[in-house]
């Protein structure tokens, strides 16, 4: 790719995966597929009145949190290990044709914005500002994205911010049991398991039809409150599920911190740094995972007040106020996810034959520690 010109061509058949298969296997936290949203929701009023991007072509792009390869880091003026890639499909109806891509804030990004968005004033472009806001985030979890954009006056339609079908399938077993208990409380203890699971699927898929009205009545919510409340509930179910998955991912990182040996000569200063940093970083990771669990405990308390004590008041209040925790939860889980995925990418089993030098290893550990400072700041307020 020309570093100073425009976007390069993306061919996922020669890269990580086929662009056409991205929607089937993409993690919610890593990919925001607006091309797929266009295919499923273009006729919805929410899609038309509250677009994610104002430029119609950009509003069909695919955004990816991308781990930079060594040869890609020179595309940026500052050191970074992940970036937000914008993929512009050649044809949104046939993604097998591939697309063009550029990363937010890489060298040449503003030139691309002026040419592609047809604007001379990049600084005042709303679409550019949204892209830069997304680049600030460690992940593209819809609940984190919604809260972060809302803080800066941007509120895209709900159709743009959903859990991916891939992640819904992965979390369905965890979520069904929790949703089923509440659905039975709100509807009828005699409701069949199949009927309860059907309603659970509707809640996860954001299908808020008349079958869910008894739940709205139980929670004493208006239509708008119920829609926002279900979004909030779905968010906490998603974060609880990710918290469970992260514990296994972090276990592998902690084991690696105790055993990984970089390759090559190591001076005394670096040796001492690694000796001090590895146990300190391990403690920070354990504390970060625990801090997320404590935040999610606020949800658990409200949930059990309803299903165990038949008291809907705390759960109702929580659903309305809960999104204020999305930024904290989303950023913390996003940072831990970054650590887990980057460790696997650079220091996993497949990389044992390409071990890092002590300097490279120390640089990565320093990046992990810097990232975890944000989680530590949240924990001091709890």
What attributes does this structure have?
382 residues, alpha+beta, 5-stranded antiparallel sheet, 14 helices, 5 strands, globular, disordered N terminus
Describe the structure.
With 382 residues, this protein is of the alpha+beta class. The chain contains 14 helices and five strands. It has a five-stranded antiparallel beta sheet. Mean pLDDT is 84; it is low at 1-5 and 9-17.
Blueprint (SSEs and pairs):
Layout: E1 8-10, H1 22-25, E2 31-33, H2 34-41, H3 45-49, E3 62-67, E4 82-89, E5 99-103, H4 109-116, H5 126-135, H6 142-151, H7 165-186, H8 193-204, H9 213-219, H10 223-259, H11 268-307, H12 312-321, H13 326-347, H14 358-379
Helix pairs in contact: 6-13, 7-8, 10-11, 10-13, 11-12, 11-13, 11-14, 13-14
| Mean pLDDT reading | 84
In N-to-C order, the SSE pattern is: EHEHHEEEHHHHHHHHHHH
Runs in which pLDDT lies below 50 for 5 or more consecutive residues are 1-5, 9-17
- Going across the biggest sheet, name each strand in turn: 1-5-4-3-2
Number of helices: 14
Q: Roughly how much helix do the residues carry, as a percent range? A: 55-70%
- The N- and C-terminal alpha carbons lie at a distance of 46 Å
Give a short overview.
The protein is of the alpha+beta class and about 375 residues long. It has helices at about 20-25, 35-40, 45-50, 110-115, 125-135, 140-150, 165-185, 195-205, 215-220, 225-260, 270-305, 310-320, 325-345, 360-380, and strands at about 10, 30-35, 60-65, 80-90, 100-105. It contains 14 helices and 5 strands.
């Amino acid at each position: 790719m020309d570093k100073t010109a425009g976007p390069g061509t993306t061919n996922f058949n020669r890269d990580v995966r086929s662009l056409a298969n991205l929607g089937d296997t993409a993690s919610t936290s890593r990919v925001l597929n607006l091309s797929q949203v266009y295919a499923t929701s273009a006729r919805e009023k929410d899609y038309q009145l509250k677009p994610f991007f104002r430029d119609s072509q950009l509003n069909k792009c695919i955004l990816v949190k991308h781990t930079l390869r060594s040869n890609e880091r020179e595309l940026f003026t500052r050191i970074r290990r992940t970036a937000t890639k914008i993929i512009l499909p050649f044809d949104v109806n046939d993604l097998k044709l591939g697309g063009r891509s550029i990363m937010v804030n890489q060298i040449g990004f503003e030139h691309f914005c002026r040419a592609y968005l047809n604007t001379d004033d990049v600084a005042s472009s709303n679409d550019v500002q949204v892209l830069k806001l997304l680049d600030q985030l460690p992940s593209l979890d819809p609940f984190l994205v919604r809260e972060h954009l809302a803080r800066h006056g941007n509120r895209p339609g709900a159709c743009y911010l959903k859990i991916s079908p891939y992640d819904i399938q992965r979390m369905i077993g965890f979520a069904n049991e929790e949703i089923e208990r509440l659905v039975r409380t709100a509807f009828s203890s005699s409701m069949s398991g199949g009927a309860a699971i059907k309603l659970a699927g509707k809640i996860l898929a954001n299908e808020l039809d008349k079958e869910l009205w008894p739940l709205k009545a139980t929670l004493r919510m208006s239509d708008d409150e119920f829609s926002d409340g279900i979004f909030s509930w779905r968010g906490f179910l998603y974060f609880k599920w990710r918290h469970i998955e992260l514990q296994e991912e972090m276990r592998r990182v902690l084991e690696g911190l105790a055993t990984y040996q970089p390759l090559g000569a190591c001076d005394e200063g670096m040796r001492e740094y690694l000796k001090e940093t590895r146990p300190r970083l391990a403690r920070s990771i354990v504390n970060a995972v625990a801090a997320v669990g404590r935040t999610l405990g606020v949800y658990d308390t409200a949930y059990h007040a309803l299903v165990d004590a038949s008291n809907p008041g705390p759960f109702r209040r929580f659903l309305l106020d809960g999104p204020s925790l999305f930024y904290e939860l989303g950023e913390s889980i996003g940072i831990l996810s970054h650590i887990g995925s980057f460790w696997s990418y650079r220091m996993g089993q497949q990389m044992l034959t390409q071990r890092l030098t002590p300097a490279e290893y120390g640089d990565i550990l320093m990046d992990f520690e810097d990232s975890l400072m944000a989680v530590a700041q949240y924990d001091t307020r709890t």
